[in-house]
Write a structure and sequence with these properties.
The protein is mainly α and 82 residues long. It has one domain: Helix-hairpin-Helix base-excision DNA repair enzymes (C-terminal) (Endonuclease Iii, domain 2). The chain has four helices and no strands. The protein binds iron/sulfur cluster. Iron/sulfur cluster (SF4) binds next to helix 1 and helix 4.
Length: 82
């Protein structure tokens, strides 16, 4: 999910991802804990690994995947006749 959001690059290892994400956050244990917990929960409920539920997501404005992959597909989808 961090990759989809654009927080880290697509080829970043798990160890490097941990450090990169931590560097984005304030040095506050409670904030880091909440970020981790919320990211996990969002990944389990909305940004599911094999089929993200973008139509139900509140992060579309912030999400690289949505802006670069989902929105262009929607723009080219045929519209029903008026
Ligand atoms: S918009 Fe889609 S890909 Fe981006 S975080 Fe939400 S569910 Fe995941």
């Amino acid at each position: 999910m961090s990759i989809r959001l654009g927080l880290i690059g697509p080829k970043v290892s798990a160890d490097a991802a941990h450090n990169l994400l931590q560097a984005l956050l304030p040095n506050d244990a409670q904030i880091i804990h909440n970020f981790h917990k919320d990211l996990l929960r969002h990944g389990q409920r909305v940004c599911v690994y094999d089929l993200p539920r973008c139509s139900k997501c509140v992060l579309t404005d912030l999400c690289d995947y949505y802006q670069k992959v989902v929105l262009p597909k929607r723009a080219t989808r045929p519209q029903p006749p008026a």
